[in-house]
Specification:
The protein has 553 residues and is α/β, with parallel strands linked by helices. 27% of the residues lie in helices and 27% in strands. Among the domains are: 14-84 and 110-194 and 291-368, FAD/NAD(P)-binding domain (3-Layer(bba) Sandwich); 448-551, Glutaredoxin. The protein has 14 helices and 24 strands. The strands form four sheets. Strands 1, 2, 8, 9, 10, 11, 17 and 18 form an eight-stranded mixed beta sheet that branches. A hairpin with a 3-residue loop joins β14 and β15. The model is unreliable at 544-553 (pLDDT under 50).
């Protein structure tokens, strides 16, 4: 690695010195990016958790490197986004090549006025290190290194019992809820006898993290049938510390052990970079594309998140980003149930929201992989024609799926949203994530999303500060976006109309925003009864028929 990675101290668990089995509200298994984000989110929401990891350091190699705008916004809410962006390589643009010519370039964030870029590139070991620091700073997580889960039992009366092995022996720990963030080979999934179904592709890919001084721009470069490689595709990304991530597609018959040997990797790199290029290998790995998921992600008290629940091919940056969004959709619900403000049935919506999100990622990942690795003469001819047309025709570029990268999912079928009762010309519909915009504030970051999150918020759009108040139930904050005036504690000013335009709002309109910054409901002219009903629905409660009608549900 470019820098020495930290090792974390093992501490003897208190359970080893007790005869009774302790019970805690939440146990998270796996201190990768997903598990650490879950611990941080729960801490921000005021809840303690126990986080178990069998190792005592961060990951080896770059692994996940592309962190999407939506993920960065989640990192912002837990207080880690600024550090990630400061270290990462910021990029919005990409270029696609076919053989020896550039087909087209693309911009994933063509409109200005967003705090966060479309992506940053940042090695997974940095992401984990920064998240560990944030979790420790928040102070509500019992972070236990070298604690390996060796058994799990769902208890008849609710909750689960974990058996945990440490250097000092084994202990048992009961939890009301368990988050299995233990990766694609999830021991918890295996111990519970659960299936992981889907498609495994034959093709193999070689990842090489290369340290070198080079002048490649901060862009995503992708080649189909490059002249410097016998395989069908190559991908190049720049990372911090002069590290470049290069992915080579290999023949399906390639021997992984042979291909990862430096004596075989270095000639490939020299063929691409030139025989006189100076570089060092930092990390090499060989992987196979897979697109699989569990039938459902909640099994009683156990919630599978990230790669333990679903796995996609890495071309598209959908794996790590999708896992972060899993816990973002789950943690506020766990907090609401533990706080007593929502019924336990709210947790059923985790499957209702994240299974379709996983399916969307799987669909796009499978399409990308099929396009990258055609197996028949017809599919080869189709790809050739699409690439030829893509140089001049925008519709053909949508067929070239290597350019369709991670996007946040809209929870279109969630039971927590209240359908529109007004005709909207645009803006984020119920279930969609909130949209950022520059705003003038009294203090803090001058961005709209920095003022949302952590709880339910009624986002109002008004001409000025003279609008009438709306009687709201406890648990809903108010943030007003004004066309003019002076910002205050719960008001911001939209100086050039960007927020009004992006949210398709006129004075008097309002949106109810969930703690994870997804839209729960919206109205052109909200009434207090409609807001109360939509809030109850978003918490998994069952409003009466009159309230639902008033809320447009």
């Amino acid at each position: 690695m470019s820098e020495a990675r930290p090792r974390f101290r093992y501490r003897r668990p208190v359970e080893l010195d007790r005869t009774e089995i302790r019970r805690v509200p939440i146990v998270i298994v796996g201190a990768g990016p997903v598990g650490l984000t879950a611990a941080a989110e729960l801490a921000v929401l005021g809840h303690e958790s126990v986080l178990l990891d069998e190792d005592d350091t961060v990951s080896v190699g770059s692994r996940a490197i592309c962190w999407a705008k939506r993920t960065l916004e989640i990192f912002d809410r837990i207080g880690a986004g600024d550090r990630m962006v400061a270290k990462g390589v910021v990029w919005n643009r990409g270029r696609l090549f076919h053989r020896d010519r550039e087909v087209y370039g693309f911009d994933l964030l063509p409109e200005p006025g967003h705090q966060r870029p479309a992506f940053i590139n940042l090695q997974q070991y940095y992401v984990e290190e920064y998240l560990v620091d944030r979790v420790v700073a928040l102070g509500r997580t019992d972070l236990r290194w070298r604690n390996r889960v060796t058994g799990i039992e769902v208890l008849p009366g609710g909750g689960a019992r974990l058996t945990v092995e440490t250097p000092d022996g084994s202990y048992r720990l009961d939890a009301d809820h368990v988050l299995a963030a233990d990766g694609v080979r999830s021991p918890i999934r295996r111990m519970m006898g659960l299936d992981f179904k889907g498609k495994v592709f034959e093709d193999r890919f070689l990842i090489a993290d290369v340290v070198m001084k080079a002048d490649f721009p901060s862009e995503r470069w992708f080649w189909f049938e490059p002249p410097f490689h016998t395989g069908q595709s190559v991908l190049l990304h720049r990372q911090p510390d002069d590290v470049y991530r290069i992915d080579f597609q290999l023949d399906p018959s390639a021997d992984p052990d042979e291909e990862r040997k430096p004596a075989n990797v270095i000639p490939r790199l020299q063929q691409m970079l030139g025989p006189d290029a100076e570089f060092d290998l930092e990390w090499v790995s060989v992987y196979t594309f897979t697109c699989r998921r569990m039938d459902r992600f909640r099994h009683g008290p156990v919630f599978f998140v990230g790669d333990s629940a679903h796995v996609v091919s890495p071309f598209g940056a959908r794996g790590g980003n999708g896992g972060i969004q899993d816990v973002d959709a789950l943690c506020w619900k766990l907090a609401a149930v533990l706080d007593g403000t929502a019924p336990a049935t709210l947790l059923d919506s985790y499957d209702a929201e994240r299974v379709p999100a996983a399916d969307e990622n799987l669909l796009n990942s499978t399409r990308s992989t099929d396009f990258m690795t055609p197996k028949t003469e017809a599919s080869i001819a189709f790809r050739e024609a699409a690439l030829d047309m893509a140089a001049d025709l925008p519709f053909a570029r949508r067929i070239v799926n290597s350019g369709r990268l991670s996007l946040p999912h809209r929870y279109a079928a969630t039971p927590l949203s209240t359908p529109d009762c007004d005709a909207w010309p645009g803006g984020p519909p119920p279930g969609a994530p909130a949209i950022d915009a520059p705003v003038r504030v009294a203090d803090g970051e001058p961005w709209l999303l920095r003022r949302l999150g952590g709880g339910f918020t009624l986002l109002r759009f008004e001409a000025d500060a003279g609008a009438a108040t709306i009687g709201l139930p406890a648990g809903i904050a108010t943030l007003t976006v004004m066309r003019r005036g002076e910002p205050g504690a719960d008001t911001v000013v939209d100086p050039d109309g960007t927020a009004f335009r992006r949210w398709a709002a006129e004075p008097g309109a309002a949106y109810l925003i969930r703690p994870d910054q997804h839209v729960a409901a919206r109205w052109m002219a909200p009434q207090a009864s409609a807001v109360r009903a939509a809030h109850a629905r978003a918490l998994g409660c069952a409003p009466g028929a009159d309230e639902l009608r008033a809320a447009g549900g």
